[in-house]
Design a protein that fits this description.
- By secondary structure, the protein is of the alpha+beta class.
- 38% of the residues lie in helices and 40% in strands.
- It has a single domain, classed as Nuclear Transport Factor 2, Chain: A (Roll), CATH 3.10.450.50.
Length: 144
């Protein structure tokens, strides 16, 4: 898990530097920004409890493979991701983090021992301080 923490700590700094010139893009979006940043930090730390604290039992993650509804299904997704990103050599590059009102959006790429994630995007719809709906789309190439 320390590998994930180092990857996301470096990514958070790089992301902050990337976003800083946008300036007013964050104006009025403070809660959304804070929730997305918390989510990225919790995921980066490999902390399941903290990651799941961003969701509710009615939250939905929509992926190209289908919908995941509720905390149990969402936990299954993150358990798989944590296991993959904990392997040596994993890297994560946050290319964009943007918000508009209650919607957060990230663009990223990554590499793990198993896959090259050429492109990933997540959209977060925030309601009452939690992620109500998230979309996740990836273009990944297996290494094996």
């Amino acid at each position: 898990m320390q590998t994930i923490q180092r990857i996301f700590a470096a990514t958070a700094v790089a992301g902050a530097l990337l976003i800083t010139p946008l300036g007013s893009a964050w104006a009025g979006d403070a809660e959304t920004k804070a929730i997305v940043e918390h989510h990225l930090a919790a995921f980066g730390a490999g902390d399941m409890k903290d990651t799941l604290s961003d969701y509710t039992e009615t939250s939905v993650i929509v992926t190209q493979g289908g919908e995941l509804r509720g905390l149990e299904a969402i936990q299954g997704l993150f358990a798989s991701l944590f296991a993959e990103f904990a392997k040596p050599g994993a890297s994560f590059d946050l290319k964009l983090l943007s918000t508009a009102n209650n919607v957060g959006y990230i663009v990223w790429s990554a590499e793990t021992a198993d896959n090259v994630y050429e492109l990933g995007t997540d959209t977060y719809v925030i309601e009452d301080g939690k992620i109500a709906v998230q979309t996740l789309a990836i273009q990944a190439v297996p290494k094996k």
